Amino acid sequence: MLPHLLSPLSAHCAACGRVADVGERLPLCPDCLRYLLHARVSTATLCPRCLSALPFGRPCAVCRRDPERLITQTYAPYRYRGAVRGLILRLKFTGDSQAAALLAPAMAAALGGADADIVVPIPLGPRRLRERGYNQAMLLAMLTARLRGLTVSDCLVRVRNTKRQSSLHSIRERGQNLRGAFDLKPEAEVAGRRVLLVDDVRTSGATALACARVLRAHGAADVVLLAAAIAPGAGRYFAPAKPKRRRQYRRKGPS
Fold first, then answer.
1. Which tens digits make up the pLDDT trace of 25-46?
2. Which of 88, 121, 181, 186 has fewest C-beta within 10 Å?
3. Same structural domain for residues 76 and 24?
C-alpha cells in the first residue's frame, strides 16, 4: 500500500473533502472507504475487450473506433463516479499522492495475470505539465509498476499542446484535437515489446487510441490499457452522430 505516501490522521476525507473522522492508515471517511472497497467494475454487461457499455445488437462504440485492434485489452478497477471520481479529481488537480496511493493497488490487482515489458504513462502537453508540475498518469504508472515489479518508461511525448478533451463533445472533435499530438522520443525503443499504457480515466478512448497508434507504428508487439476508472457508457455519447432525416410534408390539395 506504500504507506509512506499516506499522511497521518487528517480532518478531511481525501475523496469527498468533508470534515470527518478518517481511519488510522487511510485518509478516507467511512462512506468513501466502503465505496472504494466495494465499487469494483462489474463486467457482466460490458464489452469484454474495452469495458464499454454494449449497445443491443451492435459492437460497442469504442471497439468500432479501433478496428485494427491497436489496443488489445482494457483493464480498470473502478467506474468514474462517487469516491473514485473524487480521488481522481484530487490527484489530477492538486497532485495529492495520497489519492494515487489509494488507487494504484486496485489498478495492479485489476491486471490479473496480464503481463508487460514496460509501463508507459500517457503524457501531458508541455503547457499543462508546466502549469501542474506533474503528470497524474505518471504517478499512477510508477506506483502500479512498483506493485507489479515492472519498469516505467516515459517514451511517449506530446509534441504539441491540445485542448482539454473534456471540453470537446464529439468523437470527431476529440480525434482531430489529438491528431499528430503524440510521438516517440528519439532514443526510445518499443519494437517487439509488450506495452502497458496507463491513464487516470478512459472516457471516449480517443487519447489512448492515439498513443497506441504511435506505439504500434514503432513496432510495439502489444498494447493494453490500464486506467484507474472508466466511464462505461461514455462511448455511446461520443459515437458518430447519425444523419438526421428530413421530414417530408405532403402538400395539401384544395379542400
1. 678 888 998 999 888 888 777 8
2. 186
3. no
